[in-house]
Amino acid sequence: MSTFTREELLLDATDMRVELDSGRPVIEDVSLRVRRGETLGLVGESGSGKTTAALALLGYARAGMRIAGGRVVVAGDEIALHDEGAARRIRGRLVSHVPQDPATNLNPSLRVGGFLGDVLAEHRPAQANQETILASLGRVHLPAQAEFARRFPHELSGGQQQRVLIASALVCEPPLIVLDEPTTGLDVVTQARVLAEIKRLHAGNDTALLYVSHDLAVISEIADRIAVMYAGRVVEEGPTREVLGRPRHPYTRGLVTSIPDLSAPRAVTGIPGVAVGLDDRPAGCPFAPRCPQRVERCDPELPELEPLDGSDRRVRCFEAHRTPPLTLGEQLAERPARDQALLEVEGLTAVHDGRGSRVVAASDVSFRLARGECLALVGESGSGKTTIARCIAGLHERSGGKVTLAGELLAPRAKDRPRQLRRRCQIVFQNPYESLNPRRRVRDEIARPAQILRDLTPDEATAEALRLLDRVRLPSRVGGKFPGELSGGERQRVAIARALAAEPELLICDEVTSALDVSVQAAVIELLVELREELGLALLFITHNLAVVASIADRIAVLESGVICEEGPVTRVYTSPSHAYTRELLDAAPRLLTGSA
User: Which H or E element spans position 360?
Assistant: First the structure.
């Protein structure tokens, strides 16, 4: 464990254990220490236990769980983990929490000022006045005006909602703030603004931050130290640049090699296998089934989290000395331009009609996509990316322009298109939780397009579904499961397999990696690259993640307020952007910072 003086130490959490009501551990043997004014990044894949550990610091466990052990001391005061009433009284005063999704954590019937006023009234009633509320809005660069304080959450943008949550966490000036994925799902510009506010507010004071995220690029920019979790335990801990520049646990190394690089487009490498679930944790090292350094003792024995060579780092691995130096994927060369156009979009205009209002989502958009090519559409939230994708797929009726596929004009609505044209253009949606029928087994979900669009018999379609499961690297047994029994990454692969069942020539991918962990994201990128090369698929890749674009796309089209402001080869646009908005996006995108620099 890192050495701290008593005066430096602000958070001292030791041996935390949270378990299900059945007694099965969710996290165990988790100890976290943070200095005053320091930021500790807590990272890991979904299911690693990082959010559970963060919530335990507030004396809180989600439904079906309980805090079964551990001690948490913040600024010299111990939090009574087993006394919910006592723990509730310190939340906001000693430690505050910024959750991931502001839309579900802000009361839709409560105005912004009322929300902040309630927090003050609970912990600092003497300061629960309009002046303090407006000042707290100003601290996070929101309008410090009574008019803004009277707004409801639905009247704010996603970035504004997140900053209101940050303001609520700061308003009582607690010594420790826990931020749980506060920028996940935000576009790069909004994310950069929120991160800038966090850095600015954190600078020059003794407040400590625990920043929970699966985005190592963001963590590398904001955290002083990092703790990596896997299967409910910390597996590596130390200074951020050292851990990311020379990871010593094979899991940490796998996470770093999974990250696409904005500065130098390169192939990404996912971690083989899948993370173990609560029911699958072995007696020994839980990473052993996926580990290239596995030895015989890894199966029966669990390694301890031990100091590394007397340094300020700890690693939970018997074979840490064998972890090879970091080697990133091969840098991708610019692909030659392709001449044979498959998709041509000319003057596309699309609008959204509301109550007495009309919003132009896309205006006079034109581009072409060749067979076997990948074009990325990027831009901030609200720039029109998804609307354009839905217009091409026939799910949103365009109000102007034309779209042709292999020389054939596409009707504005999918239902008016011939079956063969519907077959040749398929879309994979952002959220696989909502796009798959929860009552249909996976094999039937994949088989359905093959039956409807390719006239396969039920037996032929089922056989095709099993073949496609293998194609997207899922075991055939998954075919008998329902979507609710799968992880997010598995669901996304099923959605890709379902689209492939139609044998399309064009695959539209709408933010298909935005909600995935970096290792799962890398596996999906690898899969799409494989499919593109083997099947000659053309990809229209919609995303706000510019680093992912660097790993998969040939060309990029940048959208600003529904208009393409720049288009060209990825390497040229990234190295020599010609439009100010493109430069703003590139400057805002986080980059993985490693080494001692």
Answer: strand 357-370
Both structure tokens of 292 = 């290239």
Question: Measured between alpha carbons, how far is 432 from 133 in angstroms, rounded to an integer?
Answer: 39
Question: Model-level pTM?
Answer: 0.82
Written as six digits, the tokens of 158 are: 């996603």
Cβ neighbours of residue 357 closer than 8 Å, sequence gap 6 or more: none
| Residues 528, 103: Cα–Cα separation, whole Å | 31
- CA angle 155–160–165, rounded 5-degree value: 110
**Tokens 């309980």, located at residue:** 66
CA 530 to chain CA centroid, Å, is 23
The string of pLDDT tens digits covering residues 520-578 is: 788 888 888 888 888 889 999 999 888 889 889 999 999 998 999 999 999 899 989 99
Question: What value does the mean pLDDT take over residues 360-378?
Answer: 94
Cβ contacts of 272 within 8 Å, gap of 6 or more: 290
Q: Please write down the HEC assignment for all residues of 450-482.
A: HHHHHCCCHHHHHHHHHHHHHHCCCCHHHHHCC
Distance between CA atoms of residues 326 and 415, nearest Å: 51
- C-alpha 174/C-alpha 290 separation (Å) is 41
CB 581 within 8 A of CB 557: no
Please provide the DSSP assignment of 367-408 as one string: EEEETT-EEEEE-STTSSHHHHHHHHHTSS--SEEEEEETTE
Q: Rounded CA gap, 350 and 377, in Å?
A: 16
What's the rounded Cα separation, in Å, for the pair 361 and 445?
Answer: 32
Question: 484 falls in which pLDDT band (50, 70, 90)?
Answer: confident
Q: Which residues sit opposite 454 in a β-bridge?
A: none
Angle at 593 between CA 590 and CA 596, to 5 degrees: 160
| Other CB atoms within 10 Å distance of the CB of residue 308 | 18
The HSE-up count of residue 586 (CA atoms within 13 Å, CB side) is: 23
Rounded-to-integer distance, Cα 165 and Cα 159, Å? 10
Q: How far apart are CA 235 and CA 145, in angstroms?
A: 47
Q: Which residues pair with 308 in a beta bridge?
A: none
Question: Measuring CA to CA, how many Å separate 247 from each of 118, 284, 327, 463?
Answer: 44, 21, 11, 43
CA 343 to chain centre: 30
Residue with tokens 């669009």: 453
d(CA 478, CA 499): 17
Q: Write out the H or E segment, with its range, that includes residue 580.
A: helix 580-588
CA torsion sign, 92 to 96 to 100 to 102? positive
Bridge pairing between strands 176-180 and 95-98: parallel
Mutual angle of helices 188-202 and 158-170, in 10-degree steps:
20
Name 404's bridge partners: 344, 409
Give residue-wise pLDDT tens across range 418-451. 999 999 999 998 877 778 999 999 999 999 999 9
Quick check: 71 and 15 in contact, CB under 8 A? yes
Q: How many CB atoms lie within 10 A of CB 245?
A: 18
Number of C-beta neighbours around residue 395 at 10 A: 16
